[in-house]
Structures are given as C-alpha cells and as structure tokens.
C-alpha cells in the first residue's frame, strides 16, 4: 500500500495540481492525505475523481487557512473512526493478510496549547487501540538539532512535551530516504531556514 502525505499549502495552485498529477502517475498512491488545502470541497472532489480517488473525507479550512483531505481508492478497506481539524484516524482492513491496523494522518498545530491537546489525544489512542499503528504527516516539530538548518538554535525544551507523548505512546520514527529537510521558508542567504517537519512513526506491534 502506498500512502502520500503532503502539506500542499493550497491545493488550488496550478503548480500543486501539476505536481499531484505527476506523483499520482509515478508513485501510484492508494491513499492521499493533504493538509493546508485552503480549498472548498467541490473543487477538490472534481479533481480527485480525475485521479481515481472516489472515496474521501474532508475538513474544510477556516477562512484562508487549514483544511484536510483524506482520500482513498476503491477496493481498500477503510473504516473512519475519528477526524478533527488536525487529524484523521482510520482502521485499515487488509483483506489479503487478514490484519487490521490504525492509520493516523496528522497536521500538527503550531499553537502550543492546542498542540498539547492534540498529542494528549494521540497518547490516549495509543492506550486504547491494540493494533499496529502508523502515524504520519506534517507534525510541525523537529526532534533534534540535526533536523534544522538556519534560524534560531534548536531548543529541546520547545519540543519535550511532544517527545514525551510519542515515547509514552510507544511510537518510533521510521526514518526517511531523500532530502533531509521537508520545509523551506524560501528566503535567501542567512535568512534561509530548513527543517524536517514531515515524518512517519509506528508502534512495534
């Protein structure tokens, strides 16, 4: 199963649409999770149908910010169990291997108070759900100094709460291939900042 998770920062941009078409044709994802869609449902639905994604759940943006879109192709066993402004939780049913597992697609909030609420909820999921579990998306946090280049120095105190929640939930980082940074502020010279905000985590179940 192939899963594409992307903070697209606005799905209505022509460049974003072209990039999605390219990824759909080359990577053949079965599930797509977009955050920061900043787009209305009607426009997105027509677009995803063209890419053979006939099933979805969407959380609309507030004004010109936010918005989630979780879409999957026909034939997948997907049981939606929870969704909010920041995440989608679904039980994936594997008919071939007769196994179920939990997928949490997350867009991490920037506000610290909201972040604590979201990660506390994630911690409760880890306690209640006795299934193999994958959490992925734009977490909006970095875990150590090697995941940042430029800008203010990394401070462990800024992310200790998130790391504690991840540890208590039994989740481990699955690592990555490719470029070490997934976000770039697009500024030049000394003002440029790059960070690894996107990742996938899993429990050892």
From TrEMBL:
Origin superkingdom: Eukaryota
Regions crossing the membrane: none
Pfam short name (any one): Exo_endo_phos
Keyword terms: Endonuclease, Exonuclease, Hydrolase, Nuclease
Domain Endonuclease/exonuclease/phosphatase stretches: 5-204
InterPro entries according to UniProt: Endo/exonu/phosph_ase_sf, Endo/exonuclease/phosphatase
A GO molecular function held by the record: exonuclease activity
Name of the protein this chain belongs to: Endonuclease/exonuclease/phosphatase
Organism in which the protein naturally occurs: Macleaya cordata
Lineage: Eukaryota, Viridiplantae, Streptophyta, Embryophyta, Tracheophyta
């Amino acid at each position: 199963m192939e899963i594409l998770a992307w903070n697209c920062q606005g799905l209505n941009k022509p460049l974003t649409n072209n990039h999605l078409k390219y990824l759909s044709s080359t990577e053949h994802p079965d599930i797509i999770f977009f955050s920061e869609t900043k787009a209305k449902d009607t426009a997105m639905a027509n677009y995803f149908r063209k890419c053979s994604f006939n099933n979805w759940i969407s959380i609309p943006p507030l004004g010109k910010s936010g918005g989630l879109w979780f879409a999957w192709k026909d034939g997948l066993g997907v049981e939606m169990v929870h969704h909010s402004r920041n995440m989608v939780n679904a039980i994936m049913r594997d008919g071939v291997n007769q196994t179920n597992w939990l997928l949490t697609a997350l867009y991490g909030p920037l506000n610290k108070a909201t972040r604590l609420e979201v990660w506390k909820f994630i911690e409760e999921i880890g306690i209640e759900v006795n299934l193999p579990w994958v959490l992925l998306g734009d977490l909006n946090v970095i875990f150590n100094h090697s995941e940042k280049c430029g800008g203010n120095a990394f401070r462990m105190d800024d992310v200790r709460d998130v790391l504690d929640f991840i540890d208590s939930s039994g989740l481990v980082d699955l690592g990555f291939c490719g470029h070490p940074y997934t976000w770039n502020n697009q500024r030049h010279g000394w003002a440029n900042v790059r960070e690894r905000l996107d990742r996938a985590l899993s429990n050892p179940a």
